[in-house]
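Re: Re: token formats

Sure, here are both.
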Amino acid sequence: MTATAAEFLWYIPNEVRPGHRGDDAGAGHNSLETLTGHALALEAHGWGGALIGTGWGRPDTFTVATALAARTTTFRPLIAVRPGYWRPANFASAAATLDHLSSGRVLVNIVSGKDNLAAYGDSEGDQAHRYSRTKEFLQIVRRLWTEERVTYHGEHFTVTDATVVPRPLARHPRLYFGGASPAAEAVAATEADVQLFWGEPLDGVAERIDRLNGLAERLGREHAPLQYGLRITTLVRDTTEQAWADAEAKVAQMAADGGVADPNRHPAVGQQRLLDLAARGDILDDNLYTAPGRYGGGGAGTTWLVGSAEDVAKSLRRYANLGITHFVLSDTPYLPEIKRQGEQLLPLLRA
């Protein structure tokens, strides 16, 4: 991997309550000063930017991203947004304006998973309905960023004679997307710029890349070739032994805190793929740790790459060899790990 061939992002937790995934930030954890400190540390330690998550009942993602963009110079916010929370024309205008004001630093992550929709007046049908709506959202946003006088009459959204000004500085902000169901993969194959995977083993990622490339060809993708990204926890320590001792201690603490996964929950397809990995063993592909998923770890916290910087860099290079070019990494406590992994891991990945 080289600096020009791969993108390395982190994660900034915009949460109401402190302690996200064991973070040590307390009072003021979601203040502008604290969050800006994270963004400035990312700039100082070689990271390209950070994913900022979304969900009702937490600080508004776009507002946080705008504030951080205003206080930084190279930091690129990967802004998670939900169709339904936003209407496509409103979002296209807001994102284009922020991209213009930030000199082209906006990245966008489209999220279609379940949320507390009724709280903000939204509704959804079944999975097919949800991804059909997402597809329309992506189509309209992309057109509004690249065309004038756009008219689109779909099943879910309509715009008539719409033009967004100012334009994004690039052709359009890069559109990231996740999801592992057939409906989600059909949207990714035709409409997204980057498909983000959770931390699956190498064979699972290879299988999905092959399937998505085939889908893109069969469905008649009209954009540049789909790119691929990995969102995963990376637990890096000075030695392999120290890393595994800390990883096992963290999982033991999760178990002691009562964080056992609910067998009756019905997670999304991609999340279920991660939870099912535990049946194959606690450690896959040398250092992919699946045990956190048994004790409540969710999303990027379900599986961890564990080891020295050299161990984790070797594993990430193997994902890169499959075609992964975008990496969204993190571990807690977030702020100290920005520095540790920026100093120890990123130089190995860029060597």
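Second one below.
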Amino acid sequence: MLRFWRKKKNEPRLPELLGVTIDRAVTVDSVSIKLLPEDSLIEIPQQTFSIVAQGHCDLGEQSHLHRFYPDDDSILLQMQGGDGIEDQRIDEIMLWSYYDVKYPGSDHLWKAIQQSIRQRTYMLNGPNCEVFYERAWFGDSDQPEEPIQYWEKVSENQTDKEPRRIFQTAMLFARELSDGKDEMLLVNMEEVEGTGERSVAYMLGRSLSQHELQT
């Protein structure tokens, strides 16, 4: 009995923040979605979604990034703060909408995208016109800057002992909308370890407060 109890106690568990973890349902306040201004490119197709996968990035210096992937693969819930186990601190909550995903077929195209996100501005092809974003990271610099790189471990169930490892190369941009708030653009280059799979996700994000989430 004692050996069994110790084994269960020492089993690793996925981080949980604000009650959010894999196999839980999350609801975003409807007012937050309805108040998106007309010039926003963000699309949130539903208010309630179930978390089917969960990612964790240890950014160092006691900073952790937690990503919660819903059953609707067009959005992503992200929290940054503590480790979600011993430290439940929440520094930031972002709701991301996938604007586009590309699969570069050559090293030349991959390097060209990596070069483009080093620049001071970034342009998206909007539905009616070109939309420009200013670099949010390294915002005080007028020179090209290297993107941020980190590993993400993605689990698809609570007992996943071999989560996928994805190497991320990312840059964050922003533009001010008509309501005075920023719409964020994250260009995220992803390489799945051991598979050769590469993709580039273009995600548009809006910050949320804790009271705008319900579990």
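The two ends are 35 Å apart (CA to CA). Helices lie at 2-10, 30-34, 107-116.
- S.
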